[in-house]
Design a protein that fits this description.
By secondary structure, this protein is mainly β. It has one domain: 3 Solenoid (UDP N-Acetylglucosamine Acyltransferase, domain 1). It has no helices and 19 strands. An 8-stranded mixed beta sheet has the order 1-2-3-6-9-12-15-18, with no helix packed on it. A 6-stranded parallel beta sheet has the order 4-7-10-13-16-19, with no helix packed on it. Strand 1 and strand 2 form a beta hairpin. It is globular and about 50 Å long.
Amino acid sequence: MGKNYIDIENDHGETLRYRKHANGRGLIAQGAKVHASALIEVGAYVEPGAQIAAGAHIGRGVWVEPDAVIGPEAEIAPHAHIGAGAAIGARAKIGVRAFIGAHARVAGDSLIGDDEQIADGEQVATDQRGLRLAA
């Protein structure tokens, strides 16, 4: 059986240790909190301080930056990027290659489409079709 972790050097020359999540084998940095029932697919990275709630699904190639919070049963499609300190509400759906900026907020049950970009600090709420709701 292979080792259950990998060490990666960051841009500052520091070595970060990531463990492979039991449910999906995605990489979880030390200091991140991921619920056992969350699915973190291979090729996904969850950085230190990030929190992934029960039933969340993080797709292949997703990058969840430090201190981001992913709510219960949220679905993050492959190759999306969740910025540092961003919050994704319960049951929200984030599309393929979507970019959620640092400290942005996506309300629960919202739909962010493929290739959409949410700016740093932006707060977004949509209906189930992805149409934005008034703030």
